[in-house]
Amino acid sequence: MTNFTPLAAQNLPRTKTQTIVIIALAGIFVLILGLGFYAYSQQKKSQMLQNKLDQNLQSETANLVETVGKLIRLPQGETPSLATVLDKTQLQSQEFFRNAENGDKILVYKNAKKAILYRPSENKIIEVGPVKMEITPAPTIPTASPSGKIIFRPVSIKPTSYQASPSATPKL
């Protein structure tokens, strides 16, 4: 009966090519492992930053609600959306923003359908108006399929700004 010994246990000398292949595979493995760790750490960093931004926004909103709540009765049981006027020239055509200044804050209560324009520098409410909710279909973007045909797929877009209609009725 012949004794079977695996090649790894036979202590056969490796050729230069085998050694290079083993080193290259080990290098690729270490590189992939490093890239995976880097991607994971970047995702964690991004997630921590997003959480911090969310906490800051919640804190700013709570402080603003408290401050504005001393000046006007606010809707109860609802947390408003918060926006800041960054460029008043783009809003001047809208009645609600006629007297707006850069830096003014907008509290939007969707359920109560109310918007409040507040100027922190003067601690004054500049404008209050109703919110008109408009539901529009989701926009689509064309995507090429493997067959070469263009397919339109819906894309979800979250509004990032607040705009009022010319009739002094704020919209979302």
List keywords for this structure.
172 residues; alpha+beta; 2 domains; four-stranded antiparallel beta sheet; two-stranded antiparallel sheet; 1 helix; 8 strands; 21% strand; rod-shaped; disordered C terminus
Summarize the structure.
The protein is an alpha+beta fold. It has one helix at residues 16-69, and strands at residues 81-84, 105-109, 114-119, 124-130, 140-144, 150-154, 163-164, 170-171. It has two domains: 16-70; 74-171, no CATH class.
The N- and C-terminal alpha carbons lie at a distance of: 85 Å
Give the low-confidence spans.
151-172
What would you call the quaternary organization? single chain
Spatial strand order of the main sheet: 1-2-3-4
Largest sheet: 4 strands, antiparallel
Fraction in helix: 25-40%
Fraction in beta strands: 15-25%
Radius of gyration: 30 Å
Count of DSSP strands: 8
So what's the overall shape? rod-shaped
Name the average pLDDT. 79
Q: Specify the structural class.
A: alpha+beta
Helix-strand topology string: HEEEEEEEE
What is the tally of helical segments? 1
How many separate domains make up the residues? Answer: 2
